[in-house]
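Model the whole thing, not chain by chain.
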Amino acid sequence: MIEVFKTKNIGFCFGVKRAIKMVIKEAESNDKIYTIGPIIHNPQMVGMLAQKGIKPVMDIKNITDGVIVFRTHGIKKEEEDFVKQRGLKYIDATCPFVKKVRRHAIMLKKMGYKVVIVGEKEHPEVKSVLSYLDNDGIVLQKPEIIDFRKIGVVSQTTLEKEYVLDIVKELLKEAKELRFFNTICDNTWIRKQEASNLAQKVDLMIIVGGKNSSNTTKLYETVKKIQPKTYHIETDEDMDKDWFKGIKRVGITGGASTPDFLIDMVERQVKNF
Amino acid sequence: MIEVFKTKNIGFCFGVKRAIKMVIKEAESNDKIYTIGPIIHNPQMVGMLAQKGIKPVMDIKNITDGVIVFRTHGIKKEEEDFVKQRGLKYIDATCPFVKKVRRHAIMLKKMGYKVVIVGEKEHPEVKSVLSYLDNDGIVLQKPEIIDFRKIGVVSQTTLEKEYVLDIVKELLKEAKELRFFNTICDNTWIRKQEASNLAQKVDLMIIVGGKNSSNTTKLYETVKKIQPKTYHIETDEDMDKDWFKGIKRVGITGGASTPDFLIDMVERQVKNF
């Protein structure tokens, strides 16, 4: 019999829970709900919401009716402008922590700082923040010196603190003034701590979450370093019985956008093996 | 015959030159001039000024007439208050770069930051800045984590950048917001660069300057690492003929408060050996 252990912070984080609640409530009275890009980075949850009439669209230009949802990672400024100019109905499900990144970035730009966003160039959160600076900002993915003397720094919410600080340290070398906001989401950090602790006590770790989810992928990378037998899966069907041969203790955790029901299904399946 | 090389930036720095000019001008029309503490950290220059009637006092409480000079490192807020309340005549010879440290520190405090001064607890510049914060600031001499989330950092003007940045990096770990002003004086840095370069090309280095001078002492420490045969002297009389046995090339440099005449005397003496 395999013993299963889960981390304390599991299931949706605050921002995702809030967003899902908002759209489900809206779906009660509306049957045409569009999210600009997937509302969260979890294909299974997005699939379930689609059955309730909540559908991701990549280009909002063709939408003329229904309700538009600003997803957790934030949308681009030009998309927000478009929605408002057209007078379309919308609900803003942007994570409040992501909005804080944006708010700090806008304020820094206004105050004359060259804004640096530490983050992944292609991540929607980073693209969103950058768009609110009218793309007048620098995205850094690795330590680099930039030729500005007054530098303001924010970071993508789901990054590792050490990774972010290494980049800030490099910027300090040439800055005359540097202002840094630690906008890393505490929950991401707590999940990593809990998962790292759990990984030391089990024979195998399962990380449940979207393959397109930045925080889940980073959680996997962190845990994998501690427990080489770590797997990143989206659903119970991704698991292979062979993984569990001779395994007695299994740890399960998930990303910020992983719904409880997927965790439960994985847990049941592991116990069945 | 010993060949002598000097660094390009030698003699008084901008702030010291300015201060000396101010007091000498004042001495033309006034025979009672008091500086609160030595106006600069060079005993020989301070001795020369004393002959012109410019005398350091440690406690201003007994002064009732004459002119009071605020020295290059800055004076304490309570001393400034005392002078102004008494209606005493004064001239402010505080280095403008030191005043910038103070200005940034006061602004940071007003804006709700916990102010950290990276510097030597006993240095008059640091004590001065701290006094203008009503002593509500933290002086750090080594990397330490402090329990404040909004941190504003300035540094003593004469420190090494790497030393300051190591302390800032540690503070970054727990700060939610950190605002850093690089208030290190460029001239200090340039002198170190020039002295380090020169040290690689000579057989022996002489650093001329007050033993109580922070920037001279640090210059000595930096150069000593490159050229083990490095000596910190105040005047030509501190030199020993034996140092120069078998030496062909000698480098000479000085701190920000070392007058040209001391450098010249050292140069002449070295050539005599």
